[in-house]
Structures are given as structure tokens and as C-alpha cells.
């Protein structure tokens, strides 16, 4: 599985090379499935035909890197739910992600990035810190996406904190010990025994190390963080945690018994109301402002506002495109009913620039976009 970050989004959004090819496709997770490379080959061929339609000569090297992947068996062994690929003269990037994308090929002057916004948007993203004495995991999640991240300084278990302790005793730490029920058994050492007070002190040091790793990884984040672990470790972590959006709700018990997907599914009901309220509050705010100049569904107003950083919040339809062009020097928007050469999806344009300029983006079904269009925006000024 690959990692897609805000930095990836910015790097790709800065590209303005003609032609820029974006390919999205769903993938089969079944082991040994031949559907993925076959579907991929078909989509690359579709991209080639689109390039030919735009006058790009056959035999160009834009798609050469993609074509080589077809026979790369090691690439297709790693299974995921979706694939996103971006190609231009100087860029070739592929992301295998646990997100089910619809099949889509876009050829324009910039990469098409709207399908990836839910992966990094704070409106749908949350973190899980799953802790036992035997294992520490930090997970980045959306409703349909989960991946483990490994920030520098985050201990993998309590042994990472204690491994340099008491070298004169030559103690051996048992990280595989597990108690009955949903709790962890205290870490056991061979050699001299560890008293209750020392055990508690070891846990506190362990949790402080975890907190340092979390703070390093999430220092510029605001998405909810949920703790999964036994109550003893939760109480210690709550005392030291300085993360601004650490939830009171938690998942109690030993998280080692759950894989990443199971953890995400267990915790989703805890964070879903937060996201729903945030979106509903924004909808109500749009409704209150809809008869003023502070909000609009008119795309020809939203496009320049997003580019110049005026959009505070944006609702944008997923799975559809609005083709056209924007000239920032003339502040002029042209919208076309059908795609013309070098047009770009203006909905994608608005979403990427709003996010890049610090605004909120809600990618939703077309029927859920407020107003009368496929985008609706609240302006900062």
C-alpha cells in the first residue's frame, strides 16, 4: 500500500505540463487475479487514444513508464482497492490506495486530483492510536481508507523504551505476553522481579515516548485522534497528550486482536457524528448566506475565488466534470458543455485550490451539493 499526503497533492497540483495524464481505476484484491493488469492495459490504451485525438503523435514517451508496468509482476502482487497514476513529461507517480475509485482517464494541462481529496481532507480523515505493551500502531483513516504510518520516534512496543535499562541484569523482555480478557499482562522480565511502582513508572515512560512520536507526526494536523487500548494505558496517555483534537471517546480493550481494517470499522461510529455535524453546520451556514455575496453556487464566481484564496468552504460534486478554462491574468472563466482541447475540469480546479489555500472541501454526491449547481462556496471575504 502506498501513502498519499498533502505534499503529494501540492507537488502534483503544481504541474502545468501539457499533456498531463491522470488514470484512476478500481482494483481486485483477490490473490492471483489477472483483472488488474488487463484493466490497466485497457485504460492506458484509452489514454493513448485520447492523446492521439488531441494531436499528440503515436509513439510518444509519456505513457512508456505506464506500459512497462503491465508486465511487472511484482507491482501487481501488492493488492489494494484502487490505483491512481499521474504521467507527464517529467512526472511519473503511482499510488495504490485502499480507496475504490471509479474508472477515469483525464488528459489536460494539469493532473485531475479531486478523487484523492477525501484521502487527505480533515473533513473525513481521522487517526487511531492503537497501544498495547506489545505493539504500537498509528493509523491514518477515512471511512473507506486505512493505512499505518510509522513516524520517527514512535516506539513499536514497550521494549523500545526499556531495552537499554538495567544492562547489568541482562534482562530479557517478553513482548508476546498477553493476558486473559481484553487486557495486557504486565511485561515480564527474567532476572530480578519488577515491582509494582517500577512497572507503573515503565508504563509512564513508554507512554511519554508514544506521545512524543504522535506529536512529531501530527504537529500540523487537526483531524480527530482516537485511542484504542486498555484503560490503564489510556489514563496515562490522557495525562500527557497535548494533541488538540484528542477525543474523549476511545476503544477499550486489547487492540492487538484487531487488524487495521477492523480497528477503523470499530472506531468509525465514534467519529462519524463529528464529521456529520461539521458538514451540517457548513450547510446551514451556506443556507444563511446564500442570499448574500458571501456565498454562491455560480461556478464562474467560485473558480477565481478558489484560485485567489477567497473560498472558506466548498461543496463539490464527485464523479462528474465541468470542462472549461480560467485565465487568472484576466480573471476570466469560460465553461464549455463538452470538453475542448486543453480544457480542464473546473470542479477539480476549485477543489484543489481551495484545499491548497487552507479552505475546507466536501466532496459529495451531486444531489447533496447545496444550491443549484455542482459546486457551492462560502467566501472568506
Describe this structure as you would to a colleague:
The protein is of the alpha+beta class and about 375 residues long. The protein has three domains: about 110 residues, 2-Layer Sandwich (Translation, Eukaryotic Peptide Chain Release Factor Subunit 1, Chain A), CATH 3.30.960.10; about 150 residues, 2-Layer Sandwich (Nucleotidyltransferase, domain 5); about 90 residues, 2-Layer Sandwich (60s Ribosomal Protein L30, Chain: A), CATH 3.30.1330. The chain is about 35% helix and about 25% strand. The strands form five sheets. The protein has a five-stranded mixed sheet, with helices on both faces. The chain has a four-stranded antiparallel sheet with strand order 3-2-1-4, covered by helices on one side. A four-stranded mixed sheet has the order 12-18-13-17, sandwiched between helices. About 5% of the residues have low confidence.
What is the compact description of this entry?
With 381 residues, the chain is α+β, with helices and mostly antiparallel strands. The protein has helices at 6-13, 35-53, 64-69, 73-77, 117-120, 158-162, 196-217, 231-240, 260-289, 299-307, 346-356; strands at 20-26, 82-87, 92-97, 104-108, 126-131, 136-142, 145-149, 172-174, 188-190, 225-229, 246-252, 295-296, 311-317, 323-327, 332-335, 344-345, 360-364, 375-379. It has three domains: 6-112, Translation, Eukaryotic Peptide Chain Release Factor Subunit 1, Chain A (2-Layer Sandwich); 126-277, Nucleotidyltransferase, domain 5, CATH 3.30.420; 290-379, 60s Ribosomal Protein L30, Chain: A (2-Layer Sandwich), CATH 3.30.1330.30.
